[in-house]
Amino acid sequence: MKKIIVALFIVLVFSNVDTKSQIRTTREIPSLKIKNDDGQQNKVMLAELKVDVAIFGNMAKTTMTMVFQNKTNRDLEGELTFPMPEGVSVSGYALDINGKLRQAVAVDKNKGTEVFESIETRRVDPGLLEKVEGNNFRTRIYPLPANGKRTIQISYSENLSMESDQAHYYYLPLNYTNAIENFALDIHVFQDSHKPDFTEKPDGSLAFSHQNNNYMASLRKQKFQSQRNLVIQLPIDSKGSSGLIQANDDKTFYFLANASVSSVKPDQKKWGENIGIIWDRSLSGKNRDIEKELALLGLFFKENPNMRVEMGLLDIQFVKGPTFQVRQDNWDELKTYIKRMDYDGGTDYSKLKTGVIHASDYLLFSDGLSTFGQSEISLENPVYCITSSNGSDYGVLKQIAQKHIGKMINLTNTSVNQAYNNLNTLDLLFLGIKEQHDVEEVYPQKGSAIQANFSIAGLGKRPGLKQLTLLVGDGQHTPKEISIALQPDHGEIDLQQIWAQKKIEALDLQYDNNREEIETLGKQFGIVTRNTSLIVLETVEDYIRYAITPPAELLPQFNALQKEHAIEREERVANLLDKAENSAEQLRSWWQTNFPKKKKYPQRNRLISIPELAVAQEIANGADPVTPIPSRPSASPVATARAEEFRSSDAASEKRVLVGGNSNTANAATSELAMAAASDDALQESVVVQSLEERVAGVQTGNSIRGKISIPEIKEDQAYLQELNQSKDPYKSYLQLRNQYMGTPTFYFDVANFFFKRGNKQKALLILSALADLQIENADLYKTISYKLREWGYYDNALFITSKVLKWRPMDPQSHRDYALVLQDKGMFKEALEQLYGILTQSYSPEAADRDEGIEETLLMEINNIIKSSKAASANIAVNKKLIADLPVDMRVVINWNSQNTDIDLWVTDPNQEKCFYSNPATAIGGRLSNDFTGGYGPEQFLLKKALKGKYKIEVDFFNDSSLTLAGPAAVMAEIYTYYSSGKQERKIVTIYLDRDKERNVGIGEFSFQ
User: 3-state DSSP helix/strand/coil percent for the chain, to nearest 5?
Assistant: First the structure.
């Protein structure tokens, strides 16, 4: 059985309908993106869909079972990120294993990712669903088997809001583009004294039947396709209150109470004469419902017809916009200005500070996603956060509103009229439960703001409790009492999961302080949170190996095998210190080696076979072979027998040489003569290798020469760059062209380079930051941004970006290294050393340790570089003395790349035309290349202690991509140094995108020593 990562092809979310205004939220149905789509997109179909909906009061649970069919003759792969409404999380998830649905279990998010990627290398079937930034969920599906099907099931519960017509609304998008072969819909509305109604339905035959205060409706269709969605109107009982309880084994019980306080009229908000509108004009603003936001402003100015408006514009900066005077409800000038707004770049909430605009109240129109800076703001007056984006981070917006004595208005789940009513009234407060000694752990908590219709959940302590009395009010007058009769449930709704979800929502407002408790709740109740994911493994043995408790169906077998100790648990690689000590010794030995003077005689131009090249080179050099650098087998399951693979270069056809079964290492004495053999100049002048008899720290003696680094001009041969080059207004042209390339990272990368090269650094940074808004929580894109920020010298921004990658992927040593190097760029040497040294002391999965074998050598150079640069840093960090070495070199090149399971190679060709690369990692003049990384992110490092006079060509080659994500070109960053760790080091950074199908052995720089 092959590997699958669950794909949630459809997002079922709800919307409330205001039948009076007819303004209703629309929910997108995300499409599945196929990797390397070559016309196969439309051949992956949602073949079957079964939807079960259970509604009790203002709570609804939706369970979807989906069958996807791949009609092509090859396996396909896709990825999907999708939003959920405010306060809603996925609480159930299953996929078919051997033809039967298996339920997922909750795990720590980082562990889930690490286990998934470990199993991935074995080509086994794991399933993983995780929550990413905001209230968004992400999953991949691989493989969609050739001419086969996969079955997936998800569940979620949601709280239905009340609309202005005193009814709840349940909304489900069903307007699919393609017909569904088999469709089934079952709806149950429990214990409702009023008959629900359909205000929109996908088929005319759908109707409710009635039985014992329960209402049911069903639909079965083949070749189902509808232009209409499902909208259920649920009239609220005049009493407006009801309650359910579920008993626990310890005689406690969970309860859920629905209450209505429409009789309590909250006070109206009094607005001042001037207001500030903060408009998020970042690229993600294109995902907002701007028309709905304008409709809300229309109601606002209708009720407040004379007002001075100061406009603040937010992207990666916060700048003052125009000031408008609204008179007699005429705000046309402001409306036109907003409608003509261009959206570009990332978002940095940390720029929102007092002093840019001034107002008595602020209306912040944004999605809560601060993609380019911290999410904390600092304004002096109340802030009302308004969002209309399905992918918003509701928690961040609530935190801002709470801190600044404002409100969060969510236009995605309410009508404009209801939203304005919420905005324009002072909050009602939930003031607790009269029977306070009989209950505990009640959410929302006492003092929380509530709407006129709300629900609470809690844990009851007194068996037989028949009634609760809720207290509501404004906190200043006598609270209103609402009596709730409690009745036993019949399994319609999982109350404990609803309670846990409400508690998590409350705790999430102070996430950093509550993350451990959130994780515990997520694991216990099977809820996806910021730090818990849902995972499905194929075999019982895998659950034991990775110490994950399986679902109930596998527990007996799991316990029996554990008792017999039949399956070994995963043995983590505890630390890398022993390997680092060996690497340090090898580096010292290499650095102390004197490469003797040898004369190279001319040879005639002839064609010889590859095996003869190795012998010929040894004879030509007259030298004994140099001991090769230890290496390892390929860590990538796809990178097989690379000795059998050929690749072309500008000079000759090259073959990878296999030594002792290790595809990563060739005999260091085997020099590559193919370039020389193919040279136009068959007889080369002899080159004398200078004897290194003196140990000098990176400074030439005798014939004093100096080195410099040259970076080639980036080609601008793309059609869109040529169009920009000819434009009188390049930025306007970029915005017009962007519609064609909206989701293409290389477009933003290239255009950012275009503006930076021409001196418009502000626009370059804005356009580069747009990459952060393309996909939520995409580590590959963030790595690309960080590379370019370091190249351009924007270290503060780079620190934020690398910290986000570290947060998302702490299991990767490269995440720590990238963060550490930016700390060093900022002069934070102690913190940088702590991060780098920490890489050597933390534990890794066996697969990750194998993938990153040899990273110690690069880390040792960087650790010792910091120690030499800052004695204060080393005094505060206890570094193993065996790792400390003074290793100055004339030349150092390090490459990293942004895509996992990608093989990028570093080549350096010296003045003798000897190339240092994966098959020739040690050259005659002392060039040294670290291990060949074939399955990770790098790094690969080249070192040369003493440089000869002449030029050195630096190239990178995209050899292989076995990535299982939505692959595209890989971003590669090269750090190029002269006189590294000598006290006189100089550095240049270059970042490029490589396309494996188009770009091989690309020159990225040159050393010149003259």
Answer: 30, 30, 40
Residue 866's pLDDT is what?
Answer: 96
- CA-only gyration radius of the chain, Å: 32
Sign of torsion over alpha carbons 251, 252, 258, 259:
positive
In angstroms, the CA 909 to CA 912 distance is 8
- With 60 as the cut, is the pLDDT of residue 910 above it? yes
DSSP one-letter code for 304: S
Instruction: Return the biggest CA–CA distance within the chain.
Output: 104
d(CA 7, CA 102): 15
* Mean of all residue pLDDT scores within the chain: 83
CA-to-CA distance for 922 and 879, rounded, in angstroms? 29
Most confident range (mean pLDDT) of 626-635, 713-722, 828-837 is 828-837
CA distance 261 to 264: 6
* Residue range 71-117, pLDDT digits in tens: 888 877 766 677 888 888 888 899 888 889 999 999 999 999 889 88
Structure confidence at residue 124 as a pLDDT band (50, 70, 90): low
In this prediction, residue 997 carries a pLDDT of: 64
Stretch among 74-83, 99-108, 344-353, 648-657 having the lowest mean pLDDT: 648-657
The answer to whether the peptide bond before residue 143 is cis (omega within 30 degrees of 0) is yes
Query: Is residue 46 within 8 Å of 68, Cβ to Cβ?
Result: yes
Which residues, 6 or more positions from 358, have their beta carbon under 8 angstroms from its beta carbon?
274, 276, 310
The runs of H, that is alpha helices, within 389-493 are: 394-403, 416-423
Those residues whose C-beta lies under 8 Å from the C-beta of residue 401, and which sit 6 or more positions away, are: 383, 384, 385, 407, 408
Spell out the residues 6+ positions from residue 361 whose beta carbon is closer than 8 angstroms to its own. Answer: 271, 272, 275, 276, 381, 382, 383, 384, 406
Rounded to whole angstroms, the Cα distance separating 678 from 540 reads: 57
Please calculate the CA angle 725-727-732 and round it to the nearest 5 degrees: 115
Find the range with the poorest average confidence among 204-213, 556-565, 811-820: 556-565
User: Contact, 100 vs 538, CB < 8 A?
Assistant: no
Distances (CA, A) of 217 to 53, 56, 160, 191, 952: 10, 15, 19, 15, 75
CA 108 to chain CA centroid, Å, is: 16
Bridge partners of 707, per DSSP, are: 1009
Give which of 342, 388, 393 is closest to 370, Cα–Cα. Answer: 393
CB 970 within 8 A of CB 957: no
The pLDDT value recorded for residue 995 is 77
Q: CA-to-CA distance for 451 and 472, rounded, in angstroms?
A: 10
Residue 123 token pair: 């080509």
Instruction: List beta partners, residue 599.
Output: 688
Of 261, 259, 258, the C-alpha closest to 493 is 258
The model's pTM is 0.82
Between CA 228 and CA 172 the distance in angstroms is 10
Distances (CA, A) of 14 to 20, 183, 214, 360, 432: 18, 19, 21, 35, 28
Distances in Å between the Cα of 156 and the Cα atoms of 84, 94, 476, 666 are 9, 12, 37, 55
Question: Peptide bond before 939: cis, by omega within 30 degrees of 0?
Answer: yes
Q: What is the DSSP string of 685-731?
A: PP-BPPP--S--SS---SS---EEEE-PPPP--SHHHHHHHH-SSHH
At position 652, the amino acid (one-letter code) is: A
| Strand positions, DSSP E, 248-365 | 253-260, 274-280, 307-314, 318-326, 362-365
In this structure, is the dihedral angle defined by the CA atoms of residues 555, 560, 566 and 569, taken in order, positive or negative? positive
Q: What's the confidence (pLDDT) of residue 999?
A: 62
Which residue is associated with the tokens 């021409």?
A: 758
Residue 153, both tokens: 């099931």
| Rounded CA separation 701/73 (Å) | 65
In degrees and rounded to multiples of 5, residue 127 shows phi and psi of -130, 135
- Name the range with the highest mean pLDDT among 650-659, 679-688, 745-754: 745-754
pLDDT of 50 strictly over 80:
yes
Give yes or no for a contact between 457 and 502, defined as CB atoms under 8 angstroms apart. Answer: yes
